[in-house]
Design goal:
20 helices; seven-stranded mixed β-sheet; binds 5'-O-[(S)-butoxy(hydroxy)phosphoryl]adenosine; alpha/beta; disordered N terminus; 31 strands
Amino acid sequence: MSNSEKSDFFYPNEDVIAQANVSEYDKMYEYSVNDREGFWEEQAENLSWYKKWDSVLDESDAPHYKWFDGGEINIVHNAIDRHIVGPNRNKMAIIWESENGQVRNYSYNGLNREVCQFANVLKSMGVSKGDIVTIYMPQIPELVFAMLACAKIGAIHSVVYGGFSKEALSSRIDDATSRILITADGGWRRGKKVDLKSIADEAMKRTPSIEVCICVKNNELDIEMEPARDFWLHDLKSLPIASSQCETEHTDAEDPLFILYTSGTTGKPKGMLHTHGGYAVYTSTTHRMAFDIKPQDRWWCAADPGWITGHSYIVYGPLINGATIMLYEGAPNYPYPNRWWQIVEKYGINILYTSPTAIRGLMRFGDRWPKKHDLSSLRLLGSVGEPINPEAWRWYHHVIGQDKCPIIDTWWQTETGGFMICPLPITPLKPGSATKPFFGNEIGLIDEEGNETPLNEEGKLIIKNPWPGMARTIFKDKERYADLYWLKQNNNKWHYLAGDSAKIDEDGYIWVIGRMDEVLKVSGYRLGTSEVESALVSHPKVSEAAAVGLPHELKGNAIHTFVILKEGVLPDPDLEIELKAHVGAEMGKIAIPELIEFVTVLPKTRSGKIMRRVLKARALGQDEGDLSTLEE
Ligand code: WT7
């Protein structure tokens, strides 16, 4: 792409600008970084607190910051309770549709009933404030109810994405030492029933801590229930104890709300911990301002609630804002590639938020599928998960958004809790750039020595300030959190290191390039090379394995692996198939390598670290670079 094309702005339409919740960026941004606490205090005032905070930001134990410390709040009080005493009581909260055409709707009042009942069921099973409940479910309303029920009683949820498999599930249960697992008999994917309960059974065999498994009947799969451990939710809900009234627990602003595991550079996934107060303020503010949510809007974030995108922008942010949420269980192109466009038309969706992978996947089928449908209800479109390539951006803007919907490209992470870099509906756009920092955030780029990089040069992305939605720690590992993410500056300030590289252009627009570490983004999902490697090595015929990410047209990254077999085992194509299936069964489908290459040695440094850079270069047919640290 030429530079002149790159600097071409896309300007939002007059009517989008006229109705924007935030009508001006520059002055407000300046204010938000000059008086960060003042800005966030104002935003916090929009929520309902049992008791106001003593301090907005407490930096005394930096980089372990506290927000709204001394305040009492419960995120569910804001997401549900305050709506059902006002005009939103009978407003639609959740519209759910499944791939096979089932539809269920819940008003805010109906949602409250479900969440109260679920909360009472949890209480009857001995769950109380501070307990960690693991949730492993398909994309059904009960997943949302389960999360909210935990939060309502002050328990901490740990949602494991329903596409993950037994090893991923059991290691997360183990780390959290959960006593309770909430799951379902199964879900739907491409006309097939996915048997979740038997994966959960396998995971429970590997971990000793689960005492109670609550199972939602979703698709009539014939599953095994272990007496005295496994209970059907509908049975528990019919007990007198499961009344549809339940007090919301008063939690402190800094009390944990959830743990969400995410892949890091080495070893096992890290449990990022988020809290009730700051997270509620951050997700609702970012959602209201960047996606310009209006009372009558129908909001569709087409992610899985099991990832941070779903936590922040299906469940918490939108419900706090009193929005109507679309939840869809199924693949975007099943049974036909118009499935999503059908939903947009049928429900009159106003804002659609999805990933570049999904956009590229649907673009591949051509314009005729979206053109079958009336998409005129759409006002804004969003993108998240990886950089969006300008070609996909233009298609999304032109064919789906009919040239009238700004594309809100949001850069953020599991760790950040909410958007860090994103446009507002009023921001002139450049395809492929997430544009400017969200209010309160100062973004910088640094080189290896920690010096700021010049304009248009690549550097490591840093955030120079704390923000309310930030993860407070890695579960059980406060020190590692500080070490991994925060850099102390000479002036005693701390900078957050994101793990991405980026460039900033002459207009101050930020162009995120991608991860710099051993983290892969496969179809927008985050995976660690080390997790794929451990899954391979857990196969009896594998001695060593290395995984790298290679560019892939649809998926962004494809996993390419190199495997050394055990003494006496010979490579053959059947073994490649067997190993792929093994990774799928251990980790989940998204971790299945695109390619397994059998090798006899792996390039390592003298200290024994695999040089993935060399493997990557070799696989791409590129120059292998500096090999001076390579072992003989
Ligand atoms: C990583 C975080 C945040 C919700 C989903 C992903 C990449 C995310 C963008 C974007 C370029 C992006 C980064 C980041 N990423 N959004 N708009 N443009 N890259 O959360 O699984 O924690 O992954 O996703 O590399 O570090 P996550």
